[in-house]
């Protein structure tokens, strides 16, 4: 908790999103124990409960947070503009990512949340050129690495992605690390080789590998195991250490806390937060809304391949504007513990207008037309009938 408070304070000082004072009254008493409904896993109630809320010192509120973000002068490290991914199947097209717009600034932790299958991992893979042959990508994803040339990740050659981007400018903690790890090398060898490939001297690399293992909460003795000898949680931590080894300015962390128990979840989240406080950027993909709330500056909510709401963390949790975001928050055990009714649409058969309309109690005829695409600003709500911002959820 202390770390979180500190981070909030740092956040304010750095002019990023401010955690609005999620006063006790805005978070309903914890509901029945157990996982959240609707495919999203909520952490324990205490992870995002009132104790986690910002204190009076930074109770500047959502609007202030938005203003700060709006005047943030730092250039974007990543500027995703209209990114669209389609998968061609034999007799259908999967609309996996549609007209996505987001920015990630140096020092920013952006969490991308949403139900299973909404396109989060495809977004990460598109940024790294890791999509299979049946995918087509359009739009832009401009990466401006410090001291380097701008690269459009959406239109870049495989050669350039391999040389300059993957594991260098952009790291990836993959969603299923157990299958991504090379099976014939121990963790120690994998880490040392990665460090060596990124400029560590031969004699420094072993100690650096042990330090990295300790950073991610992995017992250095476990580095001598082969990947198949690791538990899911250990493989997860090793994958995180491998992604961090080159110290990439942008880290894509796809469910990096899967298989970890709560203390290690918090340890990993705080590690990511500290990277951002030191100037790196992290795009955190997670089902865990409590995790997003704990460490993110900005949250982007994806639904059926699109970002439906993107706002500073405190503002979004205190007063969600998109009915889907409000539904996700209502599903949390510590709030109403009421699942979003219905199911997400098939990505091969999306409605012409708002994809959430069939599940939305605010929908009217106009929702058969698409809501306006997002602006490039820090606040974005794709809805014809947003909830009034500034009114607590
Ligand atoms: N190679 C592929 N061919 C066809 N469809 C695909 C392919 N890869 C992914 N998809 C589809 O794209 C959609 C988005 O998948 P994605 O893995 O990004 O979901 P996600 O939001 O990461 O879900 P989860 O939270 O379960 O990891 C899904 O409907 C998935 O079935
Ligand atoms: Ni995924």
Task: Briefly summarize what is shown.
With 393 residues, the protein is α/β, with parallel strands linked by helices. 29% of the residues lie in helices and 18% in strands. The protein has one domain: Rossmann fold, CATH 3.40.50.300.
3D structure, described in words:
The protein has 393 residues and is of the alpha/beta class. It has a single domain (1-393), classed as P-loop containing nucleotide triphosphate hydrolases (Rossmann fold). The chain has helices at residues 2-14, 62-70, 120-127, 158-165, 177-180, 187-197, 205-215, 232-244, 262-277, 289-295, 313-318, 323-330; strands at 78-88, 93-104, 109-113, 135-143, 151-152, 170-173, 250-254, 281-286, 298-303, 306-312, 380-381. The strands form two sheets. A seven-stranded mixed beta sheet has the order 6-7-8-3-9-10-11, with helices on both faces. Strands 2-1-4-5 form a four-stranded antiparallel beta sheet, covered by helices on one side. A hairpin with a 7-residue loop joins strand 4 (135-143) and strand 5 (151-152). Helix 7 packs across helix 8. It is globular. Mean pLDDT is 83; it is low at 1-71. Bound molecules: adenosine-5'-triphosphate and nickel (II) ion. Nickel (II) ion binds at residues 120-121, 175, 254. Adenosine-5'-triphosphate (ATP) binds next to strand 2 and helix 3. This is Nickel import system ATP-binding protein NikD. Residues 47-66 are annotated as: Disordered. It catalyses: Ni(2+)(out) + ATP + H2O = Ni(2+)(in) + ADP + phosphate + H(+). Residues 78-329 form the ABC transporter domain. It is found in: Cell membrane.
């Amino acid at each position: 908790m202390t770390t979180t408070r500190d981070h909030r304070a740092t956040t304010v000082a750095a002019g990023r999103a401010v955690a609005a004072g999620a006063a006790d009254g805005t978070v309903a008493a914890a509901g029945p124990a157990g996982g959240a409904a609707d495919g999203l896993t909520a952490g324990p109630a205490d992870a995002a409960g009132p104790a986690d809320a910002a204190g009076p010192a930074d109770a500047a509120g959502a609007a202030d947070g938005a203003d700060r973000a709006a005047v943030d002068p730092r250039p974007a490290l990543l500027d995703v503009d209209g990114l669209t991914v389609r998968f061609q199947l034999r007799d259908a097209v999967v609309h996996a990512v549609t007209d996505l717009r987001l920015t990630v600034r140096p020092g920013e932790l952006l969490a991308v949340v949403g139900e299973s299958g909404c396109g989060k991992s495809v977004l990460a893979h598109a940024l790294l050129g890791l999509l299979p042959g049946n995918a087509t990508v359009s739009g832009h994803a401009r990466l401006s690495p410090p001291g380097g040339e701008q690269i459009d990740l959406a239109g870049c050659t495989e050669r350039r992605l391999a040389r300059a981007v993957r594991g260098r400018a952009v790291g990836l903690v993959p969603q299923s690390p157990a299958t991504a790890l090379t099976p014939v090398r121990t963790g120690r060898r994998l880490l040392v080789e990665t460090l060596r490939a990124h400029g560590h001297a031969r004699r420094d690399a072993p100690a650096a590998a042990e330090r990295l293992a300790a950073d991610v909460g992995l017992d250095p003795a476990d580095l001598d195991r082969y990947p198949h000898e690791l538990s899911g949680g250990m493989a997860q931590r090793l994958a995180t250490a491998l992604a961090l080894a080159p110290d990439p300015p942008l880290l894509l962390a796809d469910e990096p806390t899967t298989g970890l128990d709560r203390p290690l979840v918090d340890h990993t989240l705080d590690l990511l937060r500290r990277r951002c406080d030191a100037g790196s950027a992290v795009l955190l993909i997670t089902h865990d809304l409590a995790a997003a709330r704990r460490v993110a500056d900005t949250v982007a909510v994806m639904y059926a391949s699109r970002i439906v709401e993107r706002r500073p963390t405190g503002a979004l949790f205190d007063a969600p504007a998109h009915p889907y975001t409000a539904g996700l928050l209502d599903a949390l055990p510590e709030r109403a513990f009421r699942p979003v009714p219905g199911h997400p649409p098939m990505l091969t058969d999306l409605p012409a207008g708002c994809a959430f309309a069939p599940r939305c109690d605010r929908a009217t005829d106009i929702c058969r037309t698409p809501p306006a695409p997002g602006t490039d600003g820090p606040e974005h709500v794709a809805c014809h009938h947003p909830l009034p911002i500034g009114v607590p959820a």
